[in-house]
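Tokens as discussed.
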């Protein structure tokens, strides 16, 4: 699994001109799923995300997690995170899982993040043409690949 985690002052997702998700302070998470992903990736990534110390503490130092900070989360599926640009100028998405594999893993990831966070998260809609707006705070953007745990 690949995730792009952005600390936001606000974020929203709109589908066909209908706002389906909106948060103020929190995280916007774009997640891409490949066929090699499994429940171990889901558990590791969800725990890592909710415990990331990327919010400022009382001293203005990034030393607080969303668990401490009380923010909200939006999770959006994004198969293009698995784009291969090795050959030519047209990205290949061959590594991105097809919906029959990706949707169950995406839903399990959402559920696991909710368990780790202790509250509901908002989402986009898998496979939909979404308009994602965000005001990145910092900017703070973290990229995590469960196949390359650094």
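Sequence:
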């Amino acid at each position: 699994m690949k995730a792009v985690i952005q600390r936001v002052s606000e974020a929203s997702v709109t589908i066909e001109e209908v706002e389906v998700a909106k948060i103020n302070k929190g995280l916007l998470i774009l997640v891409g799923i490949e066929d090699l992903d499994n429940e171990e990736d889901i558990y590791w990534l969800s725990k890592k995300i909710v415990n990331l110390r990327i919010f400022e503490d009382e001293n203005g130092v990034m030393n607080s997690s969303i668990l401490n900070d009380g923010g909200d989360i939006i999770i959006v599926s994004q198969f293009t995170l698995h784009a291969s640009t090795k050959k030519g100028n047209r990205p290949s998405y061959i590594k991105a899982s097809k919906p029959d594999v990706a949707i169950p893993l995406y839903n399990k990831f959402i559920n696991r993040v909710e368990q780790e966070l202790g509250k509901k998260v908002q989402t986009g809609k898998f496979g939909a043409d979404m308009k994602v707006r965000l005001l990145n705070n910092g900017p703070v953007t973290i990229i995590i690949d469960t196949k390359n745990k650094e």
